[in-house]
Amino acid sequence: CTRIELDIHISSDGHAVIIHDPFLDKTTNGTGLVKDLTLSTIKKFVTKSGYQVPELSELFTLFKGKNINFQIELKGKDSEKVVPGIVTAFGLEKNVRYTSFIHTRVKTALEETPGTEGGLLMCSVVIDPYALLQEAGAQCLHLNKRLVTAGLVEKIHKKGCKVIAWEHIIKESDFLDLVSSGVDGATTDRPDLFLRFLMRNQAGSLNRKE
Question: Which one is the CATH code of 1-121: 3.20.20.190, 3.40.50.620, 3.40.640.10, 3.40.50.970?
Fold first, then answer.
């Protein structure tokens, strides 16, 4: 496991909170949209595991000095404006990769923190994904696993960019398909199973140890 992947939404008073969905209902005992609630209101609720919804700054504080890499999906409105300031405050520009389905969000965030990596998330076929990478200033194409082919991976590699697969990658058949295609990495809920697969098959790592 080389990166911690997380999703960011912004509270009504401008705080970056780590939560997958734009609303509290699915993962906490609260209700309502994150963007409509203050941080203090959000903190009154707990997740189904019994924890408060964390701020991005709290996570960075927890791992301070540990040289951990983060993959931050900019989900909420204005996340591309709020998150870079936090990244800079903790000096983590070299430890962060911004991702989003909205390439302008990645572009804005990268402009705020030069030297940070960017990745574009895609779940449908795009005629020229490299053109979008260029426009955003991003270096990584994050593809839904259904879209990954060895041919596309090769094309993106020839442009000097990486390919990362995502979506429910937990089966050995997924691992085998992705390694065979030459991807640089995968976003998975079970990195332990993936690493075990790589070790068992003496693959050692993905193409570029992502």
Answer: 3.20.20.190
Kindly give, in sequence order, each residue whose CB lies less than 8 Å from that of residue 104, ignoring residues fewer than 6 positions away. Answer: 80, 136
Closest to 188 measured CA to CA, from 170, 204, 163: 170
What secondary structure does DSSP assign to 67-115, as a single string?
---EEEEE-STTHHHHHHHHHHHTT-GGGEEEEESSHHHHHHHHHHSTT
**Does the structure show a pLDDT above 60 at 136?**
yes
Instruction: Read off the pTM.
Output: 0.89
Chain centroid offset of residue 66 CA = 19
Residue type, 116: T
- Rounded to 10 degrees, the C-alpha dihedral 154/171/185/167 comes to 90
What are the pLDDT digits (tens) for 12-61?
A: 999 999 999 999 999 999 999 999 999 999 999 999 899 999 999 999 99
pLDDT for residue 141 is more than 60: yes
What whole-number distance in Å separates Cα of residue 143 and Cα of residue 159?
Answer: 16
Q: Which of 144, 77, 130, 134 is nearest to 110 (CA)?
A: 134
What is the rounded distance in angstroms from the CA atom of residue 210 to the CA atom of residue 205? 8
Largest Cα–Cα distance in the chain? 50
Q: Please state, in angstroms and rounded to a whole number, the distance separating the CA atoms of residues 171 and 28.
A: 28
Task: State both tokens at 182.
Answer: 């030459």
